[in-house]
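Fold it.
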Amino acid sequence: MNMTRGKARMQIKQVVLAAGRQSVLTLLLALAAVAARGETHWLTEYSAALEAAEKTGRPILTVFTGSDWCQHCRTLEQNVLETETFRTWAEDRVVLLMIDLPQQGISLDERKARSRVCLKYGVRSFPSVVLVAPDGAAITTQAGYHGQGPEAWVATMETRLPAQAVADANRVHSSLDDAVVSARDAKRPILVMVSRPGDVRATTRVASLMRDPEFESLARDNFVVAQLPPAGALTSAADDEAMGQLLGDDELPPEAVEIVVTDDGRTPLFMESGELEPQVVVTGLRRFLANRQAARTTRR
């Protein structure tokens, strides 16, 4: 079910009021349209979440909630789960599963199926969050919500992720073709850092940039990252051709680092010198992301 839950509830109420005496089928179609406009992809069936986890190798972030009676559950959703901070963190780290046990609105069979999941993981209070491995084993459980902001809540959950999930999310690609595939799956632009192989000064600059806390956080949360040599120094002919298009086949001078943002691995959307101070690079990338978001909003 695709929806930002708080906004969707209000839209659903409006749909119900407007539906009046319309047929049940018409109402269901309207509700489906509201759900389709959401942003965060929450699964609602345990078996579907396990299947997705097995395919992706990602753990399942399972939120146990009572949408029509649990005030703390609603507060957790509004303060954390509906925020851009959470959405960005979750999209390439976990499979999302919402087990909702409302007082009304679900069938007896649905209630029994969801209750079995609660029993399986020993959930006795709401809200509860259980991080589940792809094999179905519980990794960690967090009961209740104590008012943390999205950054603090996400930071705590990050420390509980399996090491491999963190490594996958923070991976730096050495192949442009692989980065394009990852970017397509994650729906993110690619941040390419280009420097000449064997160039000690350039390598040091890239390493320094990657260690900068602001740059590292921005790159991790918003981009698929690749570190590559310029055209003519790549082992893959496809990567070599693509890199030539990105940089215009110009020879990269000694000690230079070029930062290129692209969606398809061939068309540059943003370019900046990696020799600048990290703060300047971060400011430029933030401006690019803001302009990109504004353009998308305008097109809607």
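Residues 170-299 form a domain with the Glutaredoxin fold (CATH 3.40.30.10).
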